[in-house]
Amino acid sequence: MIVRPHEIPVQQVHALLLGAVSPRPIAFVSSMDKEGRVNLSPFSFFNVFSANPPILIFSPARKGRDGTVKDTFLNVTEIPEAVINVVNFSIVHQASLASAEYPRGINEFEKAGLTAVPSKVVRPPRVAESPVNLECRINQVIELGKSGGAGNLVICEVLLMHIKDEILGEDGKIDPFKADAVARMGGDWYCRANGAALFRLPQPGNRLGIGFDQLPEAIRNSKILTGNDLARLAGAEAVPAKVQGRTFSAETAKHLKAKELLEKGEVEKAWEALAD
Ligand SMILES: Cc1cc2nc3c(=O)[nH]c(=O)nc-3n(C[C@H](O)[C@H](O)[C@H](O)COP(=O)(O)O)c2cc1C
Known about the structure:
Elements: H1 10-20, E1 24-25, E2 27-32, E3 38-43, E4 46-51, E5 54-58, H2 71-78, E6 81-86, H3 92-98, H4 108-111, E7 116-117, E8 126-127, E9 132-143, E10 152-163, H5 176-179, E11 182-184, E12 190-192, H6 217-220, H7 227-234, H8 252-263, H9 267-274
Antiparallel strand pairs: 1-11, 2-3, 2-6, 4-5, 5-10, 6-9, 7-8, 9-10, 11-12
Helix pairs in contact: 8-9
The chain binds flavin mononucleotide.
Residues 26, 39, 41-45, 59-61, 70-72, 96, 99, 101, 184 line the site of flavin mononucleotide (FMN).
């Protein structure tokens, strides 16, 4: 299907974009109004955009129904500070509960049964149950429009990071199995980044693979090997020495064997299995 977003209702554009751009991480944002009243809401229009300076952006959009703005938007324009609390599986239902449209001034920490702990460098408190809290200054708010569905980019600079020791691996980095992060998909779907959903993929870095164009024809036109399989073979910096100068087979059995080896990460052996 081909979709021209300017020709269909905003609601449909919204649903398609959310289904297409997923999974999205969730910023659980604590903010405060000028009277000191605390707010806590989740936003999945969110990501990290820079490490130097450390910048995150989230977007509390204007409501589709009537184009009015959300409490979080009003708060960050009054007090340009926020804490972005990471949502993991153990608090995802509480984050969802906090997304209900409670009137301005209602403290969603209380509604969602979460513990507010004073922050160190900003006024809004942080969520004790969150594995990571990022205390931020709001550098800029960019309004993208005035109608329903218009986003508002809240550009946050991270001033202080709190990371629970329990999610760190022995190398001092965040261990994704311990972090147990969740993300938002389209509709009411979420995804949990744990177990079989996690996999590693070695980075090419400055290693230049030979590329698909240099794969021998019998391999490139395989009926068995998928694009992902071929990418692993094409990621080799050269045809492995053992099979250089050899011809390669289109034989099904050999391609099946190579596929099995590639799934185990044995790229060189896969090349060997494909040689005549
Ligand atoms: C997981 C999740 C992600 C959400 N992401 C967004 C978002 O990116 N932008 C947005 O405007 N609303 C988003 N919402 C809805 C807001 O959380 C909801 O409108 C909330 O009432 C806003 O609160 P506030 O008015 O107190 O700021 C999301 C809701 C959930 C449960």
